[in-house]
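Side project, low priority. Logging it here so it doesn't get lost.
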Amino acid sequence: MNRVEQRHVAVSMIRSLMYFLERQGLDAAALARRVHLAPDTLADRDRQVASPYYAALMQVGIEATGDPLLGLRFGMAVEPDRWGMLGVLLTHCVDVGEAIRFQLRFQALVSTVGEAALIRGDDTLALRWTAPPATAPALTEEALAAYVAFGRWATGQATTTPTRVHFRHPPQAERERYETFFRCPVAFEQPHDELQIAPAVLAMPLRNPDDDLKQWLAARAERLRQDNHDHEPRTRLAEWLARQLPFGVPTLDEAAAALVLSPRSLQRELDQAGTNFKDCLADVRQQLADHYLRDPSLSIGDIGVLLGFSEQSAFQRAFKRWNGITPRAYRRRLAD
């Protein structure tokens, strides 16, 4: 795959998984805290989060339920909003073939855990999902099951089914459980993860086509894809640091993962912008300190915590280094 090393998923995927875990009788918020998913991380559905958080949340869900097929069941329960704006776009396509083309075009808006491709043979067709060898089976099973479940929902035909399903990994439970859902033979320890489908499936109409809405959503998805590609890492880093500081000072590696970059790539981008991670962190803290000091409801100690300082004295020393005076004196100057 021609991508940076770090992979990501959209917040809409994580929120959908949490809702699914709640329906299993689990405390999804507690599980999210276990894998260090900060609540504010989940506020923006279009935001992208490093995929290890998603994989970890899936794993603790498997442990809590004791069901190794949790990923498969999560895929079976797919709803369009799981894929955010892309899911809405797909529901308004004219047929399955058009929906697949849009999904392949914009899949990175939802996830880069794996990458789907349509593989055509002489008289065969396969929707192949390629992910790194270390990818957890639950994530692969969720992906393939979600494609099938969405196809059944969007066409309104419960009989929509692949002709055969292949997984690279060994079965995680009885084969019958897989075949009950997919309604076709399922083979394991195969060369590829893929759904084999009849070419005629591409022409199956969807039940809610809307050409005007589809075109509008496609244009918006294209802009979002371009924004994600072009958005300056320095600005994205500053925005992310501002959200993370109340939970502690993040490392360069953590920041790179959140921005869907390798640490080396982030360092290179910052170097090209004439700065570095340490200076960006200091700049964000300095700007936030000025903002927080204008709020009389926040004490100096509160502000230190919001900026990620472990002690109030450390915040005071840093602030005096930035501005030449103490935070308290700065606040009095603002009042005057």
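Brief comment: Confidence is low (pLDDT under 50) at residues 1-5.
Revisit when time allows.
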